[in-house]
Design a protein that fits this description.
Oligomer: heterodimer
Helix content of chain A: 25-40%
CATH class of chain A: Alpha Beta
CATH architecture of chain A: 2-Layer Sandwich
Largest interface: A-B, 26 and 20 residues
CATH topology of chain B: Udp-n-acetylmuramoylalanyl-d-glutamate--2,6- Diaminopimelate Ligase, Chain: A, domain 1
CATH topology of chain A: Heat Shock Protein 90
Number of domains of chain B: 1
Largest sheet of chain B: 6 strands, mixed
CATH architecture of chain B: 3-Layer(aba) Sandwich
Shape of chain B: globular
Number of strands of chain B: 6
Number of helices of chain A: 5
Structural class of chain B: alpha/beta
Chain lengths: 150, 123
């Protein structure tokens, strides 16, 4: 069964739509629950997904998130169309934030998002092009002792 | 500490929650208005105390597997948040107490904070 996809599903995320913000993450969590994934893996995935989704809602015009679950791992791929991140190293620093007062009123923008995504991932990759968008790859292994090749 | 006891101590109103949910045992609590911080430091099974009344507070509680939410300063969840709490089965209370006071009351009655990091323990 190794290498076979168990499930793959994509979600559209609309920038600035705070009313819908977080719905994709809730759906991801529900899917993982239905698959009987370990609760600690679900929790880490849900937190990473929610932070990533909120980043798209807050900063980008739109984005797409694809969830892929294999027997070895949960993989989330996010690609947004937005302003991009000029200095990724700085953006990964806890507490660094470019959030507006409106974003903070929503309860976000504490500069914890990207570091928290990394903390909850086994493998985290980020790349960005200013003026075009940002791409995230989040890998969470179902068996932490077996680090499969993504 | 039972959620019902938390309701009594904070003289809180039950915004939503069944009798069975009010019997839920709460072992720790975390308070914040910034959901980013709750997501970074929160623990599953905790009580969330917050003054942030939009739907993101409920969504954060759901993502974190928090057992209940207490809104402080007399806040109530917005319509979308309340609907989400009902769908997800997360009981919601509202107290007129300020955040500091609400936390102080619960702490002095034995409700612990979320687990602190090893660094803080060593200090």
């Amino acid at each position: 069964m190794s290498g076979e996809n168990v499930l793959s599903q994509s979600f559209e995320i609309i920038g600035g739509n705070f009313g819908r913000a977080g719905k994709a993450s809730t759906t991801v969590k529900d899917i993982l629950k239905e698959l009987g994934i370990d609760p600690s893996i679900i929790r880490r995935t849900a937190i990473a997904t929610y932070e990533a989704e909120m980043n798209v809602v807050m900063y980008a015009e739109k984005g797409e998130m694809t969830l892929r679950v294999t027997p070895e791992m949960v993989h989330l791929h996010l690609q947004d169309q937005g302003p991009g991140i000029p200095d990724i190293k700085l953006a990964m620093k806890e507490g660094y934030s470019t959030a507006t007062p409106e974003m903070r009123e929503m309860g976000f923008g504490a500069g914890m998002g990207l570091p928290n995504i990394k903390k909850n991932s086994d493998l985290f990759e980020i790349s960005s092009e200013v003026g075009k968008g940002t791409r995230l790859e989040i890998f969470i292994y179902l068996n932490p002792k077996v680090k499969a090749n993504p | 500490m039972k959620l019902r006891e938390i309701q009594r101590l904070l003289q809180a109103e039950v915004v939503w929650g069944t009798e069975a949910l009010l019997e839920t045992n709460i072992e720790c609590a975390c308070s914040a208005d910034l959901m980013s911080d709750v997501l970074a430091f929160g623990q599953p099974g905790q009580l969330l105390l917050t003054g942030l009344s939009n739907a993101q507070s409920v969504r954060t509680a759901d993502i974190l597997e928090a057992k209940a939410i207490v809104y402080v300063r007399g806040k109530w969840p917005d319509e979308e948040g309340l609907e989400l709490a009902m769908v997800k089965g997360i009981p919601v209370l509202s107290t007129k107490r300020m955040m500091y006071e609400a936390c102080g009351i619960l702490y002095t009655h034995g409700l612990q904070g979320i687990l602190v990091s090893d660094t803080i323990k060593k200090e």
